[in-house]
Specification:
By secondary structure, the protein is mainly alpha-helical. Helix content is 47%, strand content 8%. The longest helix is centred in the first third of the chain and has 12 residues, at 38-49.
Length: 132
């Protein structure tokens, strides 16, 4: 995604000017994109394209791996997972979190929502964060 964002950045205005371009810019992270302001999409594209740590993070994750020490977490945990997540597909990607790492968490699965619930359903995501 980082490489694609870097290539797209010089063309961001043209890409985000059309509904088709906005759909392509959000296809991996959202299901519902029509309500997302163009300015926010441009800001996200800029952030992804200019992230200086992306290559190091990717290298670390693939070379070293990552484990979560659930015993070290002393606060309540709520996991909100979009059931149409294309980056971490439900339920296969959630299995290790749910059974191995965070079995004590409060799990909320959202139908028709992608990787970024805060973008797909911002009000519902905010209410879930607040515990409403």
């Amino acid at each position: 995604m980082h490489t694609a964002a870097k290539a797209a950045l010089p063309h961001a205005a043209a890409i985000l000017a059309t509904p088709e371009g906005r759909r392509r810019a959000t296809q991996h992270i959202t299901v519902r994109h029509d309500h997302i302001p163009v300015e926010l999409l441009a800001h996200q594209l800029l952030g992804v394209a200019t992230c200086q740590a992306a290559a190091r993070l990717d290298d670390y994750a693939t070379r070293i791996g990552w484990e979560l020490d659930a015993a070290a977490i002393a606060c309540p945990v709520r996991i909100v997972w979009g059931m149409r997540d294309r980056l971490l597909p439900w339920p296969s990607a959630a299995a290790r979190y749910r059974s191995d790492w965070l079995p004590h968490a409060d799990w909320v699965e959202l139908d028709g929502v992608g990787h970024c619930p805060q973008l797909d359903v911002p009000l519902e995501a905010a209410q879930l964060i607040r515990g409403l």
